[in-house]
């Protein structure tokens, strides 16, 4: 036997009990037996219980008449619609509140986060107080605060607060003018799309020119001029086809305009203000995570403070910020399920109603879980694309 | 000897000069921190405007105009609303909080039995405080008393039915008692469970690894309400006919499972941060898997993720408020339930009650986050990478 062969030979473990492969196999088999055994037991119990309680199973109920009304319906829905349509309405409401909430929370969060790094002592302190208050209070409490503490005690419609731009605020919610698009509005949309395409083209050309000649082109201002200017031109050409439908006060209520219900308003405000506190901390950590040497090196290259921030600090900070920001977006989406507490008909609330009416708890909870999992996966996928764009490109 | 070129060489250091007057004192501070540039001045004015707009309103409402004591709603309503306050009065109705304080703390726990939760609270504090102070010895014994003995004692003391104590159904528990007990048990269960799940997720055994991944990712992908729904609607279906489950226990299971999944991800972060050399070093010493993990890897990993663990605790503490959706009455639930009391229904009641609840939640969460910052500083070995 050569020494090579001796080395290659497996060392003796004395007994097969000490062989890691056998151990691993044993424990995995044990876990599989335990897990599948309990699943089998549970499924058996569920079937037995369902039979005993005379509850139907399967997803056939989705086609039957829902028979309940929903207060906010982005798509046509009556109590004669099917359960499936009710669930779709709920899902759409969840998506609406999540998307608007994410936008609002991002704006507030970035503002407060940058504010916490301000040179200005007063601004810094105000932002710190904001973050420390909202981070440490349950979101559900914030929702109730807006709903029963603030919005419910507003004056009745007759004594509505008059706000600028012909909008009103009262117990029943927030009313603002609705834009009514007349004939020829399609021209504006076309102009807007055209402007976007042109802005993209200009940016590409400017980049090519800078790469080859070193000359810069004011891309930002050109794009703004294009995106604002072209639709405006189209608007004038089409003969100003926009009229505003102002909310009008009648004896007991307000008519016309766009009506935001207090449920939606309190949910939106609470979710965005709550999440904004977390986003602010993420942004702060991200900017502080870019080492000072980077700023100083950029300064040494002769960049001014604007370009330093735009070209050096923010791209690096975004790399730190995006992953935790994604999980905050996911949290906001999941927290939108708190809508059920104040009666905003989101997915959880409608699924809960469906579940109570049909008694098909297994299917109801299953639908809820799948819907939220898909929403989470989609949000993660979008943020992963953004993250890949921002990621460090190494050789 | 060579001549020196220099005529005079100073042998002692010059005395340090104080900073120029423009760089010290209140004036320099204001110039640097408040009015450094035009933009700064605008921001300062804006800040002063915000403070001047909010603070007087808050102080007026919460302190100056507030009603601290009173028998019923009349003290918190204006004359037009049937009360004693002048027209246009707004102020906090702390009298409501004052009158309902017992309920906010214990729910509908029988008044003559309330010494039991109070006793549990005293025991809890008596065990928790030495646990939190690093200098106090016997941490192991203390931990066993706090996390094993106390829950058992508390269970029998709160529920009753032994030693001649009358039984108090969990449906009568409420208020801060429910909030604290749910989150304490949740914390005590979720941390070990999270550690096991994290180890499972990093295990080399594929089946165990995938089971852990499926569990963690599913739970993290759905809202807590769905988990609570699951626990309250589906758990009864899972059991054989006739076996019932206490609602409180169902909520407890839901909250613990939920927190465990998040805890697992936090712990996994710590495990990943431990260099491979530590694992290999432990292997070369001949340590087995559990010895390696408990003696070498976990102590380092957990120390790294203390902030994350505490954040999960804080999140869970806040999340216990969601049990009101499956109609259990924690602090927030009891406060909300009392808005409906006709004796106290005033426009100011909801705001006052919610702010009181917010303050209690805030105190606990802020305290936890400050303690975690302190621990982080104390355990900082200085080996920052």
Q: What is the rounded Rg of chain A?
A: 29 Å
Main beta-sheet strand count, sense and barrel state of chain A:
4 strands, antiparallel
Structural class of chain A: alpha+beta
- What number of domains of chain A? 3
Structural class of chain B: mainly alpha
Q: How much of the sequence of chain B is in beta strands?
A: under 5%
Largest sheet of chain B: none
Q: What CATH architecture label of the largest domain in chain A applies?
A: Orthogonal Bundle
Q: Give the % helix of chain B.
A: 55-70%
Tally of helical segments of chain A? 12
Number of strands of chain A: 8
State the domain count of chain B.
Answer: 3
Distance separating the two termini of chain A:
48 Å
How far apart lie the N and C ends of chain B?
Answer: 55 Å
Taking all residues together, what is the mean pLDDT of chain B? 84
Uncertain regions of chain B: pLDDT < 50 for 5+ in a row? none
CATH topology of the largest domain in chain A: MetI-like fold
Which stretches of chain A are low in confidence, meaning pLDDT under 50 for 5 or more residues running?
none
Question: Helix and strand succession of chain B?
Answer: HHHHHHHHHHHHHH
Number of DSSP-assigned strands of chain B? 0
Structure write-up:
The complex is a heterodimer of chains A (395) and B (385). With 395 residues, chain A is an alpha+beta fold. Chain A has three domains: 51 residues; 191 residues, Orthogonal Bundle (MetI-like fold); 68 residues, no CATH class. Chain B folds into three domains: 110 residues, no CATH class; 57 residues; 156 residues, MetI-like fold (Orthogonal Bundle). Chain B contains 14 helices and no strands. With 385 residues, chain B is mainly alpha-helical. The longest helix of chain B is centred in the last third of the chain and has 31 residues. The relative contact order of chain B is 0.09.
